[in-house]
Amino acid sequence: MSKKMTRAFAVALSAGALLTASACSSGGTATAPTTPTQEVDCSAFETYGDLNGTTVTVYTSIASDAEAQPHIDAFKPFEECTGATVEYEGSREFEAQLPVRVAAGNAPDLAYFPQPGLLQTIVNGNPDAVVPVGEAAAANVDQYYNEAWKMYGTVNDTFYGIPIGANAKSFVWYSPSAFADAGYEVPTTWQELMDLSQQIVTDNPDGSVKPWCAGIESGDATGWPATDWVEDMMLRVGTPEQYDQWVTHEIPFNDPVVVEAIDQAGSILKNADYVNGGFGDVRSIAATPFTDAGFPIVDGTCFMHRQASFYQANWQEAGGDITVGEDGDVWAFALPAETTDSVPMLVGGEFAMAFRDAPEVAALQAYLTSPEWSNVKAQTTPNGGWLSANTELDPSNLAMPIDRLSYELITDPNAVVRFDGSDLMPSAVGAGSFWKEMTDWIALDKSSQDAANAIEASWPA
């Protein structure tokens, strides 16, 4: 990896130094790049040197035009200032094709990984094909990110994957107007949440309205929303250290604290009085598409739905013009913990790893870890649904209120932030037995202990 770039690049990217994509001579506020002919302040890029004529290939799972274009647009300042060209390729077959390309010696220069587990698999299976993160990018991550993000991109004590995007998962969606009409207040502790759930049952004795609605159907990935519930409960009934030991298998999957976490998820998901508003009984959760699971909030047949910040994109499919905001049709609050001392926040995100040791690749890595890129990327994503965990991202650049709330929560210095556990586990577990057993736990009323035992038995030797 090139040693030419130093921490000086990170220092140049000060808190207020947003990349000016509008004409710099006007002194205007930074805006999203709209054409490649706009002037850009390139002073922060001087440390890269002249990369004119070089090309960096980027391979991702982000294939749709709507999602890919913001990434492509956010590369434009880098291209204009360095002279390098970034070739973006998105593929829905990313997870299947990347290992094939790496094994064949046809790896991209940089690949975006939708979960750390796949990154770890590629590193362990192809140690000679991957390149550790360069000095400049590593310095940026040290300066601008919670240390946990570097840990999730580290394999065998070597830092390989830089954080790209992030999302907050520990949210409960609700209708502010429905809460107000019923006289309900947003709960701030777990006990308050359970008391509210019981109050909703009491207020609707005929059972036509339920406290909760849920769905875990997701095609071949059915079950993953239930794993998020368990992960959130692990951060509430156990310690952060126990969570870390669980995902690395330092404690077994059927450890008592894990079984307790599954049981706590079941105190809602397997409570016939509490679920499944608008859809049916407990078993209906297994057949309800996760994309539709929150919709009964809009018609008033359920009050709450636990799902990540990215669920904001689904509300327009609920019918009508649904506004997401504190005073809108739907909003979200952080899933409470036992106390209000700190709110554990389950997160997801993407990471990028290099397969070619070259100055232009190292430079693009450094750009992707900078405040400049995070702010430009936010500006080029006008429909929202994206944020970065970079602490120098200006939240006002995030298009949607839920993204701004997510950013506030995941960058809070007192927050207990942990990455989605199933994404950190071996794929045979995290994307296999964990999904399946949580589905059986719902659909077949399998016990928490039996489900945990089966997952433990599936853990690769």
From TrEMBL:
Keyword NAD: no
Keywords: Signal, Transport
Signal peptide: 1-23
Superkingdom per UniProt: Bacteria
PROSITE patterns per the UniProt record, alphabetical: PROKAR_LIPOPROTEIN
Keyword Transport: yes
Entry similarity comment: Belongs to the bacterial solute-binding protein 1 family.
Protein name: ABC transporter substrate-binding protein
